[in-house]
Amino acid sequence: MSDDLCTRPATELAALVRGREVSARELLDAHLARIERLNPALNAIVTLDAEGARAAADAADAQLAAGRPVGPLHGLPVAHKDTHQTGGMRTTWGSPLHRDTVPARDELAVARLRAAGAIRVGKTNVPEFAAGSHTFNTLFGATHNPYRHGLSAGGSSGGAAAALAAGLVPLAEGSDMGGSLRNPAAFCNVVGLRTTPGRVPTHPAPIGWSQLSVQGPMGRTVADVALQLSVLAGPDPRVPISLSDPGHPFAAPLPTELTGLRIAWTPDLGGRVPVDPAITEVLMAQLGVFRELGATVEEDCPDLRDADEVFGVLRAWLFEASFGDQVRRSPDSFKETIRWNAARGAELTGADVGRAEVAHTKLYERVVGFFERYDVLLAPTTQVLPFPVEVEYPTEVNGVEFDDYLGWMRSCTLVSATGCPALSVPGGFTADGLPVGLQIVGAPRSDRRVLEVGHAFEQATGHGLRRPQLG
Predict the structure, then answer these.
(1) Of 23, 95, 133, 156, which one is the catalytic site residue?
(2) What is the pTM of this model?
(3) Between 3.30.565.10, 2.70.180.20, 3.40.190.10, 3.90.1300.10, what CATH number should domain 2-302+371-465 receive?
(4) What letter does residue 238 receive in the DSSP assignment?
(5) Catalytic residue check, 362
(6) pLDDT tens digit string along 256-306?
(7) Is 23 tagged catalytic?
(8) Per-domain residue ranges for the chain?
(9) 95, 175, 180, 416: which is the annotated catalytic residue?
(10) Out of 81, 322, 416, 424, which one is annotated catalytic?
(11) Mean pLDDT in the chain?
């Protein structure tokens, strides 16, 4: 029964706890037992507070017994990304510089999950300062893919994705600048949503006006992601790009058919990214599912010219602003890719950033025009399959070599530059059993639409039900 609880959708678990069919303590103990058994091999959760979680679960059960109102995530265990500040629990950012850092208070996303009734279990592994889409660091080591030990779980929310896939927690959250929610979701056969900038306000943040990095939900099902988004989303007056829409409508039931939906499909983002043919083969076989659900599907792609420059310049500028001074003071305290990105930012001129912002504006206008003709765009989430954990990052795909560590992530980074919401859902498996992610991109602010499309596809295919075989 305990393992069954650990693999059920969060939506079902929330109903069981609210109905007092399962206690919050029983649910937590089932997950703690699974963490004890499976996490040593996966290395997904790097900080665990079992006693604190048990106390919170007991308080949650007492609250229900007293008949007091409870939140939509009441009693659900959750693990927080180790770049998200947790009051009274260490937050390391995957860096030796912060091995003993214990924030005084929760940051906004963590606080909203707690307020909704979630039970904090611990922290999930990340690459150093969330830089890169492969989860490893010198503090805790690498996170392994639950579907095949020895392969990457993706990143930077790799610990979160692996924990979800392995049933260590029913919910987790992450962040995404260049694919950090989508990439690990694809590698681990779970669901990750890069939200519209401002949909989930980030506070504190060093540059509150930036729209490149966002926070968002991860789960084993699209409905679980929608449920979590319903409490993460909503305005905050301290966040200048915060959207005014409330979060609760995201929890409404999702459709299972797509009659009349206009879908564009691109296997390589208009010829701009090389993709492993094994990924393309799996995803091409899924297009008929959308037609059977009532949608029309055409091969097309928005004009993404300059998206590389936009993402590269704005990312480098953010790295210089965030890490430049520290890197110059103590270069050996940072991995080489962070030093490189900060150095690239230091070389930028005001004119460089200005040109990137002009290109950013034109890119946005072209994308808005594209989504007047289509409702969503389908594309591969990743260009590569999960690779060995010893490899820092892939240097080529399908015979095309890359100039830097970001090259293999461009199926996500080009989309990040558009400002569009993008959902990665399980898209099938290769012949030898590795997960493939399907990226569903919507018009700006159409987070609900990509969830609807993802849910209908998920229900029709059942790819997300194929769980890893673990001890």
Answers:
(1) 156
(2) 0.98
(3) 3.90.1300.10
(4) T
(5) no
(6) 999 999 999 999 999 999 999 999 999 999 999 999 999 999 999 999 999
(7) no
(8) 2-302+371-465, 308-355
(9) 180
(10) 81
(11) 97
